[in-house]
Amino acid sequence: MNSLSVNLAGVELKNPVMxxxxxFGSGMEYSEFVDLNRLGAVVTKGVASVPWPGNPTPRVAxxxxxxxxxxxxxxxxxxxxxxxxxxFLKQFDTKIxxxxxxxxxxxxxxxxxxxxxxxxxxxxxxxxxxxxxEGGIAFGQNPAALESITKKVKKYAAQPVxxxxxxxxxDIAEMARAAEAGGADVLSLINTITGMKIDVRRRTFVLxxxxxxxxxxxxxxxxxxxxxxxxxxxxxxxIGMGGIATAEDAMEFILxxxxxxxxxxxxxxxxxxxxxxxxxxxxxxxxQHVEDIRELIGAVR
Length: 301
Description:
This protein has helices spanning 78-89, 105-115, 143-156, 172-181, 220-233, 247-256, 266-269, 273-288, and strands at residues 6-8, 11-13, 17-19, 41-43, 60-63, 66-69, 95-100, 122-126, 161-164, 186-189, 193-196, 198-199, 204-205, 211-215, 238-241, 260-263. It has 301 residues and is an alpha/beta fold. It has a single domain (6-296), classed as Aldolase class I (TIM Barrel). The protein has an 8-stranded parallel beta sheet with strand order 3-16-15-10-9-8-7-4. α2 (105-115) runs parallel beside α3, α3 runs parallel beside α4 and α6 crosses α8. The two termini are 27 Å apart.
């Protein structure tokens, strides 16, 4: 039997396929289409210390080979999440990764501390949030800020910490090294690329927020390149994401150096995408006569 299991900072996943934060909720809606037991992990939508209303509408727009979103990390807050979402996910034989967001270092640390007693497996820290104390620049766009928040979060974390890197930087390898220096256990990348769409008939912005995060197949070549660069810069396991819709897409990231992959925008067009990718990876190993997918992590250098 070909093995799809992979290890992220001591957490064993049955396969490398997981959901991307913000595209799958906590799996409740998708559980009607996908057997969550088939997935390596479910990554939840971003969770903050208090409920966030998100941005004004419209906040989603289609683009060529992708989409723009400016949801603004709308979420019900950590209390509702712990009472409602964790018990739901504990019904399934899959790992639970909680995505954490905040506007200050204290915001992040309060959520991480609250989750220390909860039965979740890993924490993914969304450093693409604007740091309100530093004039709104994202934590993940400044190496010193990224290293600082990683160190602070690690002090409160009972679970391994994944730092989710922003692609809106000049040098992704520098950011990867900053997260590693701060004590990150795992890296995930890429988050969305900042984009804009204008309605030429109405002569105004399509999104109320003006800009949004570009995701989907359009960003995949950028994402594969950044995963490759990050994998060459650090010794941490990497979760690759950005435009993954098929098993072939997932294998590109794994060959570039990713230990696991997250599927995001594809869930909107095909709710069964994650399960189909797991099946596709099983077929790929058989066709390629590879016994263990770990043999292929970073095989292209």
